[in-house]
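The records we work with from here on pair a chain with its fold. Taken together, the tokens spell out the fold as the letters spell out the chain. The record below shows the convention in full.
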Amino acid sequence: FGIENANGRVYPETTLKNAVEKYMVNLKERRAYGEANHPDGSNISVDRIAINIIELHWENHTLVGKMEIPISEGFRNMGIVSTCADMVAQWLISGLRLGVSSRGLGSVEKHFGQLVVGDDYEIVCWDVVAQPSTPQAYIGLTDSELAPYVEGKASKENTITESKYDKFEKWLTD
């Protein structure tokens, strides 16, 4: 919150924290779904679900979350990509750098040359995207991978060398 994103919008602290608090019911009910890319509209289509957010918390000005990728049995057992979740998992295994971006509804007003999101803002979901509008909002498989992007976190060296597949398998089962 409080910084201008790539879309030229600024989310005030109270606006974003209130929207996240309202959204938390979706986490509790296991329906905090997101899609691969932002579609044209606010409805989440079940045939395009790619992720489910399972945790959100604040670290200073940074909202940090954990997600699960509901891959299919065909992908898990044979590597067959048949869903959006399978596709996202394959991209991550391949080492692509994917981001997350919120999708929401609400008013925007111009204040001192900046577009400020209004108090009526509601989060629809977070989607997996190639270019997140929030600076450095990328998916990482470990806390140490995310450390450089989280305000106030020091980066730690990962002393264990693991393949991308091993890391991803651990991430899926945690």
